[in-house]
């Protein structure tokens, strides 16, 4: 599974630094940005790519509850030193509620809940919109055979459908794509390729052979050492 990308927001700078330090000790957690000013965070939301926000509640300018209502589609972990906010926090569908001072094991449990929620979302969301060379396109994950880095610009990704048609997704990373695709249905096998797992016919330590249409030609892709362990885990599930 790709890293969980998170944003941290807490107006108390020492608490924010401590939270950053704890996050750095957790595998699979990537802190995209930290803010000790909620208004600055609000002004920069549109330019940030993240899955979850660890959000303090009592802050000047705009409190965490107000801010959470503007984070549609993002997972929220609330944090506060004041227990009286717990009920309201869960009314906003927060995945968890942390009491200060932060504890590593408690933070780890909160991110485990985030991981489960994101996986559940991916398994039920079968379609999503992407910016492409054709404009906005609604992509159905079940129709995708594989995805490769575009030949002319590495920032773009070429999506190859099972019927052989193609579309160029503009300015998107593999990590971003994997967060949109159902977790157990797609796998990155090297720096340039994601494949649909149900197309796999056979594999070795170095190669995976896939068939994308019934009775169609079998294609072979290299498996990089960096992704071999994740690939094996997927195949053993």
Automatic annotation (TrEMBL):
Record key words, sorted: DNA-binding, Phosphoprotein
InterPro entries per record: CheY-like_superfamily, LytTR_DNA-bd_dom, Sig_transdc_resp-reg_receiver, WalR-like
All copies of domain Response regulatory, residue ranges: 5-115
Superkingdom of the organism of origin: Bacteria
Keyword Chloroplast: no
Keyword Phosphoprotein included in the entry's annotation: yes
Protein name: Response regulatory domain-containing protein
Organism: Parapedobacter defluvii
């Amino acid at each position: 599974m790709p890293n969980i990308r998170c944003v941290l927001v807490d107006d108390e700078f020492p608490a924010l630094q401590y939270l950053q330090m704890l996050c750095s000790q957790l595998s699979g957690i990537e802190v995209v940005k930290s803010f000790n000013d909620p208004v600055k965070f609000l002004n920069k939301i549109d330019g940030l790519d993240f899955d979850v926000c660890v959000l303090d509640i009592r802050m000047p300018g705009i409190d965490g509850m107000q801010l959470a209502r503007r984070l549609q589609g993002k997972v929220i972990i609330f944090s506060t030193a004041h227990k009286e906010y717990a009920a309201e926090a869960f009314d906003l569908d927060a995945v968890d509620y942390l009491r200060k001072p932060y504890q590593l094991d408690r933070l780890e449990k909160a991110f485990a809940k985030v991981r489960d929620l994101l996986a559940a979302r991916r398994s039920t969301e079968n379609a999503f919109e992407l910016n492409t060379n054709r404009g906005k396109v609604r992509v159905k994950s079940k129709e995708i055979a594989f995805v490769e880095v575009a030949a002319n610009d590495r920032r773009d990704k070429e999506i190859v459908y099972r019927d052989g048609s193609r579309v160029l997704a503009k300015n998107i990373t593999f990590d971003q794509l994997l967060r949109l695709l159902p977790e157990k249905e797609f796998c990155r096998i090297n720096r340039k390729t994601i494949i649909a797992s149900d197309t796999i016919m056979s594999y070795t330590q170095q190669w995976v052979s896939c068939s994308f249409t019934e009775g169609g030609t079998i294609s072979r892709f290299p498996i990089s050492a960096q992704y071999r362990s994740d690939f094996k885990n997927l195949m053993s599930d």
